[in-house]
């Protein structure tokens, strides 16, 4: 994980102490929850073949991100189809 700078460390400290309060209205929170539910619905199963090397690399990346490798694959595919995955 990348190191945090002083500003980020202050924010994390304030969060841990419970000093941060939400400014979202109930209507906004409801809208955000509905959007999250709609985005998180996984209703189709897909089987793909990957090289063992690629799968191992994906599993390492997922471990670094602290998530299951299947979630990482789904996230990368989602970013690609929504145009948010940029080539280097």
Q: What's the number of helices? A: 4
**Overall number of structural domains:** 2
Q: Output the radius of gyration.
A: 18 Å
Largest sheet: none
Low-confidence stretches: none
- Global morphology: extended
Helix/strand/pairing category? mainly alpha
Assembly state (oligomeric):
single chain
Percent helix, as a range, is: 55-70%
Distance between the termini: 20 Å
Q: How many β-strands, per DSSP? A: 0
Share of β-strand residues: under 5%
Whole-number mean pLDDT:
89
User: Could you state the order of secondary-structure elements as H and E?
Assistant: HHHH
Structure write-up:
With 88 residues, the protein is mainly alpha-helical. It has two domains: 1-41, no CATH class; 46-88. It has helices spanning 6-17, 26-40, 52-65, 69-81. The protein is extended, with a radius of gyration of 18 Å. The model has no long low-confidence stretch (mean pLDDT 89).
Q: What is the fold's blueprint, element by element?
A:
Blueprint: H1 6-17, H2 26-40, H3 52-65, H4 69-81
Helix pairs in contact: 3-4
Keywords:
61% helix, 2 domains, mainly alpha, 88 residues
Task: Provide a compact summary of the structure.
The chain is mostly helical and 88 residues long. The protein has helices at 6-17, 26-40, 52-65, 69-81. Helix 3 (52-65) crosses helix 4 (69-81).
């Amino acid at each position: 994980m990348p190191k945090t700078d002083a500003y980020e460390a202050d924010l994390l400290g304030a969060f841990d102490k419970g000093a941060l309060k939400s400014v979202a209205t109930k209507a906004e929170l409801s809208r955000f929850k509905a959007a999250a539910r709609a985005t998180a619905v996984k209703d189709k199963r897909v089987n793909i073949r990957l090289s063992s090397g690629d799968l191992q690399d994906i599993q390492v990346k997922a471990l670094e991100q602290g998530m299951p490798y299947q979630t990482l694959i789904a996230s990368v595919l989602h970013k690609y189809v929504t145009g948010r995955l940029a080539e280097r």
